[in-house]
Amino acid sequence: MMITDELVTYLEALGRIRLPEESRAKAQRDLQEILQYIDTLSELDTEGIEPLSHALPLTNVMREDEVQPSIPPEEVLANAPVRKDNYFLVPRSFE
Q1: How many CB atoms neighbour CB 83 within 10 A?
Q2: How far apart are CA 88 and CA 21, in angstroms?
Q3: What are the structural domains, with CATH classification, of the chain?
Q4: pLDDT tens sequence across 2-45
């Protein structure tokens, strides 16, 4: 597949971007190089190789949910510009 100026224009419209004229030729060359690299990868024999969803094996990355003490309200509100009782006071956002 050849990356043409029309294709770059179409991709700009899809991405809702406008490339400066000096960047269009570079984008066209870069896209062509990417496609050539993909063609090179397509030549590899992948028979019997399991598809991967991730490059690295993932394990449960979530930490245990442990109860911890809260920060005291006085400490939390120490630098609040305006406060009322134990709450931040903020401007009204709607009527």
Answers
A1: 15
A2: 51
A3: 5-42 (1.10.20)
A4: 999 999 999 999 999 999 988 999 999 999 999 999 999 889 99
Contact between 86 and 92 under an 8 Å Cβ cutoff? The reply is no
* CB 32, CB 2: distance < 8 Å: yes
Q: State how far the alpha carbon of 75 is from the alpha carbons of 70, 72, 80, 86, in Å.
A: 10, 5, 10, 10
pTM score over 0.70? no
As a three-state string, the secondary structure of 2-21 is: CCCHHHHHHHHHHHCCCCCH
Q: Do residues 33 and 40 lie in contact, with contact meaning Cβ atoms separated by under 8 Å?
A: no
Q: How far does the chain reach from its first CA to its final CA, in angstroms?
A: 58
